[in-house]
Amino acid sequence: MSSTLLRTVPALRGALRASGAAKPAAALASTSFVRGKATLPDLSYDYGALEPHISGKIMELHHKKHHQTYVTGLNSALETIAEAESKGDFTKAASVAPLLNFHGGGHLNHTLFWENLAPASRDGGGEPSGVLKTAINEDFGSFDTFRKQMNTALAGIQGSGWAWLVKDKQSGTLGLVTRANQDPVSGPYTPLLGIDAWEHAYYLQYENRKVEYFEAIWNVINWKTVASRFEKA
Amino acid sequence: MVNFGNLLQYLAVQSPQQILSGDQLNTTAMAAYTLPALPYAYDALEPHISAQIMELHHSKHHAAYVANLNNALQSHVVAVTSSDIASQIALQAAIKFNGGGHINHSLFWQNLAPASSEEAKSEAAPSLTAEIQKTWGSFDAFKKAFSTTLLGIQGSGWGWLVKDGSGLRIVTTKDQDPVVGGEIPIFGVDMWEHAYYLQYLNGKAAYVENIWNVINWKTAEERFLGTREDIFKTLSAAL
Ligand SMILES: [Fe+2]
Ligand SMILES: [Fe+2]
């Protein structure tokens, strides 16, 4: 399960490669473990770069603390699985599945999230162009309708979770899905654009006014990233 | 200090209120729930839970559950009146979520108390603590087990100490799922990020450690000694 998860995500592969070079001490611990060791990816912008839409403090905690916790949890789950596997204890290995899903999903989702955001002064905000624009118009009617539907989906999440613009692998059409907690987008869908609707993503700045966060985040969506995911999918 | 018995009376008196809505010819009456007042000031749980958290949590979050519950119930009445089964089904998730949010937070406020109060001392729950020691071996072992369970919740949810036919148990519920099975909720802890984030940020372990200072053991003892019927009769009837 873990290897499938890792193989399908180019961004995550990058993070994994980086880990091998950066953490030689950890690499010595176990050969089989080195290959699956996840690390926290760097952001391609400063923590304060998404202000005033997302505060620097939120970004710093979100990346340095929350995302790091998922990375740590993922490595710990992988380690437990590897150990159990080496002892032939598959019951034990299977019991780690919820932790693997939660922390693996958390790592994957946040990695995709950071990449589909950008400072408003650079690539952030505006509207998609090219084939992505055409596809959004075809499948949602208009960009504005898409935005409204995404915001409705976000506001309707009961508890913690994410909303995603996805491409259906079979039909090639675009759609919206929500996922509870850190459940990753998988199966028939390729994730193109994710928005984190956990309270930690906005609470320090927007408190209970999550609708304001869902409005503001459109100013920092990196449509270049979304378009590139769409074209590769 | 309002005890749990008073809460039930409060809910019975305060909600539902009969309000005529929609077409008066249909004599469609529905329940309107109201936000219960806190039995202490917003800053009364300082320094363990900040006044800012308490005020937002009660006057915004809990109020939103109440408002959205009333909206969903009103729509449901309309759907029933017009025999619109599809809409009735579609409304069930909103009723469960917001109704659960209303029940959970109502129970939560009552099972907290200022740290300096008599209610916040475990001595206020002699029968309950005896049963806890019997079940977990020691009071500390129980606290550790409960804390570990709280910290293991993935996403939004609650941890509860409950009593059922076979004794005490620790359970978790996701999002706003209420404890309305066969169990008696003794006390609950809100593990949504809004319950601690402004003060503890990502440090939820510190929130869990500090919540023990403000548990209302007097309320917990009363719930423990009461029957499920005592506790949920009014709530269930009100729903
Ligand atoms: Fe997040
Ligand atoms: Fe809450």
From TrEMBL, chain A:
Family classification: Belongs to the iron/manganese superoxide dismutase family.
Q: Which UniProt keywords apply?
A: Antioxidant, Manganese, Metal-binding, Oxidoreductase
Which InterPro entries does the annotation name?
Answer: Fe/Mn_Superoxide_Dismutase (IPR050265), Mn/Fe_SOD (IPR001189), Mn/Fe_SOD_BS (IPR019833), Mn/Fe_SOD_C (IPR019832), Mn/Fe_SOD_N (IPR019831), Mn/Fe_SOD_N_sf (IPR036324), SOD_C_sf (IPR036314)
Residues the record lists as binding Mn(2+): H62, H110, D196, H200
Its required cofactor(s), as named, are: Mn(2+)
Looking at its record, which EC class is this enzyme?
Answer: oxidoreductase
Protein name in the entry: Superoxide dismutase
Any idea which GO molecular function terms this record carries?
A: manganese ion binding; superoxide dismutase activity
Where does it sit, as one GO cellular component term?
mitochondrion
Q: Where is the Manganese/iron superoxide dismutase N-terminal domain?
A: 39-118
User: What are its E.C. numbers?
Assistant: 1.15.1.1
Give one Pfam family, short name only. Sod_Fe_C
- What this chain does, per the record? Destroys radicals which are normally produced within the cells and which are toxic to biological systems.
Membrane-spanning regions, if any? none
From the UniProt record, list the reaction(s) this protein catalyses.
2 superoxide + 2 H(+) = H2O2 + O2
Domain Manganese/iron superoxide dismutase C-terminal as annotated: residue spans: 128-229
Return the PROSITE patterns for the record.
SOD_MN
Q: Which Gene3D superfamilies match?
A: Fe,Mn superoxide dismutase (SOD) domain, Iron/manganese superoxide dismutase, C-terminal domain
This protein's species is Immersiella caudata
UniProtKB/TrEMBL annotation, chain B:
Localization of this protein? Mitochondrion matrix
- Catalysis: reaction(s): 2 superoxide + 2 H(+) = H2O2 + O2
InterPro entries recorded: Fe/Mn_Superoxide_Dismutase (IPR050265), Mn/Fe_SOD (IPR001189), Mn/Fe_SOD_BS (IPR019833), Mn/Fe_SOD_C (IPR019832), Mn/Fe_SOD_N (IPR019831), Mn/Fe_SOD_N_sf (IPR036324), SOD_C_sf (IPR036314)
The EC number(s) given in the record are 1.15.1.1
Q: Which GO terms describe its molecular function?
A: manganese ion binding; superoxide dismutase activity
Q: Which domain of life is it from?
A: Eukaryota
The alphabetized UniProt keywords are: Manganese, Metal-binding, Mitochondrion, Oxidoreductase, Transit peptide
- Please list the residues that bind Mn(2+): H57, H105, D190, H194
User: Where do the Manganese/iron superoxide dismutase N-terminal domain residues begin and end?
Assistant: 33-113
Where in the numbering of this chain does the Manganese/iron superoxide dismutase C-terminal domain appear? Answer: 127-223
Q: Which cofactor does it need?
A: Mn(2+)
Q: Which GO terms describe its cellular component?
A: mitochondrial matrix
Under Pfam families, the record lists:
Sod_Fe_C, Sod_Fe_N
Chain's role: Destroys radicals which are normally produced within the cells and which are toxic to biological systems.
Question: Which family, according to UniProt?
Answer: Belongs to the iron/manganese superoxide dismutase family.
Subunit organization? Homotetramer.
Supply the PANTHER family for this chain. Answer: SUPEROXIDE DISMUTASE, SUPEROXIDE DISMUTASE 2
* Protein's name in the database: Superoxide dismutase
What phylogenetic lineage does the species belong to?
Eukaryota, Fungi, Dikarya, Ascomycota, Pezizomycotina
